[in-house]
Design a protein that fits this description.
- InterPro entries: LOX-like_protein (IPR050912), SRCR (IPR001190), SRCR-like_dom_sf (IPR036772).
- With about 250 residues, the chain is mainly beta.
- It has three domains: about 1-75, SRCR-like domain (Mac-2 Binding Protein, Roll), CATH 3.10.250; about 85-190, SRCR-like domain (Mac-2 Binding Protein, Roll), CATH 3.10.250.10; about 195-235, Laminin (Ribbon), CATH 2.10.25.
- The protein is built from two helices and 17 strands.
- It has helices spanning about 10-20, 115-125; strands at about 1-5, 25-30, 40-45, 60, 75, 85, 95-100, 105-110, 130-135, 150, 185-190, 195, 200-205, 210-215, 220-225, 225-230, 235.
Amino acid sequence: STVCDDSWNDNCATVVCRQLGKASYGVAVHESEFGLGVGPTFLMNMWCRGNETDLLNCKFAKADDCKPENTAGVICVDSYNNIRLVNGSDKSNGRLEVLLYGNPSWGTVCSDGFTEENARVACRQLSLPTRHVQFKTDAYYGEGSGDILITNLDCAGFEVTIQSCYGFPNSEYPYNCFHDQDVGISCSDDCPSFKYGAECENTCKCDQSKSISCDKDSGKCICEYGWKGTRCNCEESTECKETIDEG
């Protein structure tokens, strides 16, 4: 039996490669590139997160209308960091560039439609922090050269690689995008001032005029000298009778 290539992506291919014990990552192949399958097509409309241990743990439908020339395939690879950040201040930031399978030259990503979720997936793929991610437009890290390979990338945020996101790769180069729109990203484990949480989504309940910052994990306030209390609103020399606002 075979699998239909509709909705087939790198997340699905990665599950197959891991299940077979072949490699850590997979590249999705479409349109029966390795030849027509033998026997009936069993599955279609596959949807995997990429962390499943078995293809049958993914969402799917039983195939009822898939042509033989639409058989899915996989290429198993040991490394999938064919993206990079260049021209940044260190390895955690820079212009985002990609290397497409079968293409010898690096290309850039258009900032059109780019989101924080896209940046988070790219940081994860590069084994960089994902707590506080940002994307920069207007060639913030300088203009690239060569082809602009991706535009309107659409990641949900949970993917392992940007290659697994909707819109990768584009069927045509985005000719309506120019290098002054090259996107860049930054990946950090630090939160902005008075923010905390797994993605810096919470605001610390500190008196900001009397505190230095807060712990990025717990939100606990770090008081200025001479102040104490849960919110740093009690003088060190006095008894603290603050009221904690739970709202």
